[in-house]
């Protein structure tokens, strides 16, 4: 359930919603961090649910000491009204037994809020690609029929590769086996996509094949691809420093080595 930060709930009608899937390398979450930080988006509310592991922390986008003392939660909503853009940032894993419930919550909120389209930023294990998925770049996309009706030309112009269907049993050629959509390490990505197809929602998935480790370069790659479509910034690829790195990224791998050890 969405709870707004003040007494006047924001209108999301005709906004584009961008949200991450908690997936391999946290690439989607890192990409959303870059969007919120760079566009200086305003926090307008949060998602109240028992589907996310409960946690709280300081402001990940703090620019001064006063900002740093703000309390932040696992699922928060930010907006940039001038761009008609909303972002749902998810900072905690989804409780495994409540994955379906969380997907239903998100789909219900998307429908009731009147978003014009939704973009899921995600990732998938690079080591589980099949031979065809080794070709081209590491970017893949999925789009629901509802969004394809209005975005087919734009997606074709971008030249992205659609996520390939793979054999249910790799290495075996069985004429009776239909190829299927498989996104290993993608968290709720596949479920949210199939739910959106069933509910006739305008939704797209952008994902990268990657491995666990330092996934900051993957986040920049993914957010640049998103910008090629949504035009959030002007020519970020020509000026890589245009994306503003949040202060919280200095702690991605924990704090420094305590001097007392030496």
UniProtKB/TrEMBL annotation:
- Entry's Gene Ontology BP terms: proteasome assembly
InterPro entries, from UniProt? Proteasome_assmbl_chaperone_2 (IPR019151), Proteasome_assmbl_chp_2_euk (IPR016562), PSMG2_sf (IPR038389)
Record field: transmembrane:
none
One GO cellular component term, please give it. nucleus
Q: So which residues are the signal peptide here?
A: none
Q: Which family does it belong to?
A: Belongs to the PSMG2 family.
Q: What does this protein do?
A: Chaperone protein which promotes assembly of the 20S proteasome as part of a heterodimer with PSMG1. The PSMG1-PSMG2 heterodimer binds to the PSMA5 and PSMA7 proteasome subunits, promotes assembly of the proteasome alpha subunits into the heteroheptameric alpha ring and prevents alpha ring dimerization.
Which protein is depicted? Proteasome assembly chaperone 2
Q: Which organism is it from?
A: Seriola lalandi dorsalis
């Amino acid at each position: 359930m969405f709870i707004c930060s003040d007494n006047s709930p924001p209108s999301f009608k005709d906004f584009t919603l961008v949200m991450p899937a908690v997936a391999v390398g946290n690439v989607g979450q890192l990409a959303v961090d870059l969007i919120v930080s760079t566009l200086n988006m305003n926090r307008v509310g949060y998602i109240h649910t028992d589907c996310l592991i409960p946690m709280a922390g300081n402001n990940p986008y703090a620019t001064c000491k006063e900002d740093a003392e703000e309390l932040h939660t696992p699922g928060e909503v930010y907006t940039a009204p001038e761009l008609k853009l909303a972002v749902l940032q998810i900072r905690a894993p989804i409780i495994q037994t409540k994955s379906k419930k969380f997907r239903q919550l998100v789909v219900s909120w998307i429908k009731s809020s009147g978003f014009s389209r939704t973009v899921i930023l995600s990732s998938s294990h690079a080591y589980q690609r099949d031979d065809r998925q080794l070709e081209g770049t590491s970017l893949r996309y999925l789009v629901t029929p509802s969004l394809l009706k209005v975005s087919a030309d734009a997606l074709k112009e971008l030249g992205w590769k659609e996520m390939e269907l793979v054999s249910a049993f790799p290495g075996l050629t069985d004429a009776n086996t239909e190829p299927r959509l498989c996104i290993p390490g993608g968290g709720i990505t596949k479920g949210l996509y199939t739910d959106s197809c069933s509910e006739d929602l305008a939704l797209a998935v952008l994902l990268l094949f990657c491995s666990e480790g330092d996934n900051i370069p993957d986040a920049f790659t993914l957010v640049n691809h998103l910008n090629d479509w949504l035009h959030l910034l002007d020519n970020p690829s020509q000026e890589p420093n245009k994306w503003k790195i949040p202060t919280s990224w200095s702690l991605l791998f924990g704090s420094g080595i305590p001097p007392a050890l030496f």
